[in-house]
Write a structure and sequence with these properties.
The structure holds two protein chains of two kinds.
Chain A lengths: L9 H25 L4 H17 L2 E4 L2 E3 L4 H8 L1 H16 L9 H26 L4 H30 L6 H33 L5 H4 L16
Antiparallel strand pairs in A: 1-2
Chain B lengths: L2 H18 L11 H9 L26 H27 L4
The chains are: A mainly alpha, B mainly alpha.
């Protein structure tokens, strides 16, 4: 979903840049609460994993592919503030690969690192609040968060396109096309996210932020195997 | 090696295999946004990337002729750069006892 330069006009790109800077600034503060000696190396690994995952385009429909965005995965594993930073670091590195525009970096960070990650976080947190505690619940909530994050990111792009799209295209058609193709990509995102969270939670449940309930002080509580 | 280190090293190896090997089998079809841009007729508004011509443009390392090797190297370089930048940032940000 990497937006190239030119799709969105300068004023809206600059406004998105300001949103991205403000949002990442807040995440830099929030991440201090999520990161300690044990979770900081994991967060670096999550960023690297998201970079790798974003290279793996899978086919979704005739002549169309999608790839992991990684926002839900990062939010669940290392927390939403750190998760946003993970995805933002990936998007920054990708600019050097000419993937995602340079003036569009603010749009890409806002769409994928902020909207994508925080949508996933809110969905996961809401589901964990009402569903019975356990590993299966965290995996299922991660899948739902992943699907929601991709759809929200697609709609965030559509909103920027409505505000500052250079091409004169009916916005309803863009919204419908973005929504339908990203519903399919979101299913792929949900499957990859669930499989990865399930793998991590089976060996190191203590490292899964959402399973700990987001409280770093409870890091030790769930080290012993618990039934899901 | 302690449990933490085993987990991190295993995770990094999996990540490197994904970026350096599995990625060479990835679909080369346009992604969701690219496809929508083509279908809705705004793909042409994309401007040339200012870093087009970068040594790793398009996940291919310049000067490496073998397509798979070039993509694999680009993936490994990207993982390394992301790990260094992200890991460094998170180590600086972390709470210290």
């Amino acid at each position: 979903m990497h937006v190239p330069d030119g799709f969105i006009n300068a004023p809206v790109s600059i406004a998105a840049g300001a949103i991205a800077v403000a949002g990442i600034g807040l995440c830099l503060r929030g991440a201090r609460r999520e990161l300690d000696d044990r979770t900081a190396p994991l967060a670096g690994l999550v960023a690297a994993f998201v970079f790798a995952g974003q290279m793996l385009n899978f086919p979704v429909a005739a002549g169309t592919s999608g790839h992991l965005l990684g926002g839900a995965l990062a939010a669940v594993l290392v927390g939403p503030a750190t998760g946003s930073l993970c995805v933002a670091v990936v998007l920054f590195v990708q600019v050097f690969f000419a993937d995602g525009g340079m003036t569009a970096l603010g749009i890409n960070v806002t769409v994928m690192a902020l909207v994508g990650v925080w949508t996933a976080h809110l969905v996961v947190r809401a589901l964990l609040a009402v569903l019975p505690r356990g590993r299966t619940t965290v995996v299922a909530a991660s899948a739902a968060g992943a699907l929601a994050s991709v759809l929200a990111a697609a709609m965030a792009f559509t909103a920027f396109f409505a505000l500052g799209g250079v091409a004169d295209v009916p916005i309803g058609a863009v919204a419908a096309a973005m929504g339908s193709v990203h519903a399919l990509i979101g299913v792929g995102e949900a499957l990859i996210t669930a499989a990865t969270v399930m793998s991590v939670i089976s060996v190191r449940p203590d490292l899964v932020h959402a399973y700990r309930g987001g409280d770093p002080e409870r890091l030790e509580i769930h080290v012993a195997p618990t039934t899901a | 090696m302690n449990r933490q280190r085993v987990f991190l090293v295993t995770g990094l190896l999996i990540t490197l295999v994904l970026a350096g090997f599995v990625s060479t089998f990835a679909s080369s079809s346009p992604d969701g946004l690219e496809k929508v841009a083509e279908d809705q007729g705004f793909a042409g508004t994309a401007r040339k990337h200012p870093l087009a011509g970068s040594p790793v443009e398009g996940y291919a390392v310049a000067g490496v002729d073998d397509e798979h090797l070039s993509g694999a190297l680009a993936g490994v370089i990207g993982v390394g750069a992301t790990l260094a930048l992200g890991g460094g940032l998170f180590l600086v940000l972390r709470r210290r006892p």
